[in-house]
Design brief:
CATH topology of the largest domain: Dna Topoisomerase Vi A Subunit, Chain: A, domain 2
Largest sheet: 5 strands, mixed
Order of helices and strands: HHHEEEHEHEHEHE
Distance between the termini: 79 Å
CATH class of the largest domain: Alpha Beta
Number of helices: 7
Oligomer: single chain
Bound molecules: zinc ion
Strand content: 5-15%
Strand order of the largest sheet: 4-3-5-6-7
Shape: elongated
């Protein structure tokens, strides 16, 4: 039997088009890669696609932010905050959980963290109140902290964010430091190589 032709034939059926569109919304994935991934999943065993769907569901369903430092966790507190051997007198302030992981990989740091979840970017509508800065100040009022390492990224937004926090630290009398120069400027901490980042941490300077 010959199919009835519709007036505007849709070449890519809706479920396929939809997944291509969803993939295209991810950073670094253009329409070509999105199509390739979609057709790969179409051909693959059902378990692969179902496993991926389940993992995505669990990611949003189970992962939350640590009540203390805003690192990602599945409990009330993150593994770092729950580790009693960590130095409780130092807080390293980072923009994203990925920066925290980069610093952990160096093995050069044994203190606590505070994750801001972004940086100041007025042009994108990101202001102080969108970051976990008030939460940091609240911690400094209740926890016995000697030093805050402002480990925001070595780029314009990161520097602006560090400066903004520094203004809040001065009245509290908390010692503030910044990672040593030498990190590739304009880049993100998460891309810095382990040795360079470790050295920047060891050679941190007073602000
Ligand atoms: Zn934590």
């Amino acid at each position: 039997m010959r199919p009835a032709y519709s007036e505007r034939p849709q070449l890519v059926v809706e479920p396929v088009a939809r997944l291509i569109e969803e993939f295209s919304r991810l950073p670094g994935i253009g329409p070509k890669t999105a199509s390739r991934l979609t057709f790969f999943l179409l051909r693959a065993e059902p378990e692969l696609a179902h496993g991926l769907a389940q993992a995505l569901h669990d990611l949003k369903d189970q992962v939350r932010l640590c009540q203390r430092c805003f690192n990602i966790t599945v409990e009330e507190f993150c593994p770092i905050c729950l580790e009693p051997s960590r130095d409780q007198s130092v807080i390293c302030v980072v923009e994203e959980p990925l920066d925290l992981l980069a610093i952990e990989r160096t093995g050069a740091y044994r203190g606590l963290y505070h994750v801001l979840h972004g940086h100041i970017a007025p042009l994108d509508g990101v202001y102080r109140e969108h970051l976990k800065i008030d939460e940091l100040i609240a911690r400094l009022r209740t926890e016995a902290v000697d030093e805050v390492i402002l480990a925001t990224n070595p780029n314009t937004e990161g520097e602006a964010t560090a400066y903004l926090i520094l203004k809040d630290l001065v009245p509290l009398g908390v010692r503030a430091t910044r990672l040593a120069r030498g990190l590739p400027t304009g880049g993100d901490l998460e891309w810095a190589d382990i040795d360079t980042l470790g050295a920047a941490l060891e050679g941190r300077r007073e602000l």
